[in-house]
């Protein structure tokens, strides 16, 4: 009897392979050998090529040969497929919107955090340690719990001797995440293709429908909506799409900070100075468009080379203006409002990588990918041409200017300046400005005489 039990145990311990699996695998291997085996190819070589294991696991090997998973799906073009995809996206977004925490949940979290503040208590700035915080998370709703993995507590920790985190920081983090998810959901509704990015027309629709909700845009006339939307959209695409792909990823829009500036216009008590500095404000957009109309002397809606030369009190060199029209998109040799906005954004933000890329492409005459002394001399001759008409006696020779430029940039190649060199040096905007803008050139040349005046003013302010 004992021997029978031992034999049964041995039989149970052996791996069971069904005859069906063995037969199917043998037939599959036989088929491949008949169709592909060469006279000099043995079974071991074939098994190695087919990745067939020597020691078994036939069932798993057979499973790997049955199907190659599809990793890319084309967007359907037929009406029924497109409609089905739209409905599926709508249901998906609706389900995701229900997972977003509400303002009531956030306020409830704040109350729980304050009730469970950790000792020693500080009424002005209550704090909470990790153990008390985890008890609060367990009491909160599942949506709140999903916002707080353990790493968040560690990220917000600021060397408190009792291992605590400020409750205000936790609450602000919650509100920020709530804003992020709400904004992402709102932008996703305008993603007409459903690929996670917005095209120019998508972003135009979003901003156009946003205008009536903006308190600071209440005085905007409806006839100006078209130009306002164009002005707002250009800032997004100039800075977030410098390679001109025609689309921007939704997370890039949310993380850039530009959407925050746009949504600030909902506030009723915004400061006038802040509105003046905000590109998306009614004041700023009106000022930019008014300046464009003032430059358009023939009132044809486009700017010629001579008209654009009057920009910024005619401080830009003629050589630079010629290169702008050679590189930018024009219509019959004239610039439209959209190209003008790119031009303005580049000159008003000269130290940003996107502006440096814009200006670099204009100054890279032969599209070589770098600037050599010949390119610098070409633009400096245009500067000399302007300086000769001004009451300035001393015009520094080009060699001096070239040496100063290369000293500021410190390029990797001593005779070439690349876009990367300009960005890394931190003074790229100044370097290009002294070659294209006579105002910037004069300020740079007289910097030593201007510093004492500036310091004197500062001393008088602090006295």
UniProtKB/TrEMBL annotation:
Signal peptide bounds: none
Predominant subcellular localization, coarse grouping: cytoplasm
GO cellular component terms listed in the entry, alphabetical order: centrosome; cytoplasm; spindle
Record-level Gene Ontology MF annotations: calcium ion binding
Highest taxon of source: Eukaryota
Electron transport recorded as keyword: no
GO BP annotation list: cortical cytoskeleton organization; microtubule cytoskeleton organization; regulation of dephosphorylation
Key words, A-Z: Calcium, Cytoplasm
Keyword Cytoplasm set for record: yes
Name of the molecule in the record: EF-hand domain-containing protein
Organism in which the protein naturally occurs: Rotaria socialis
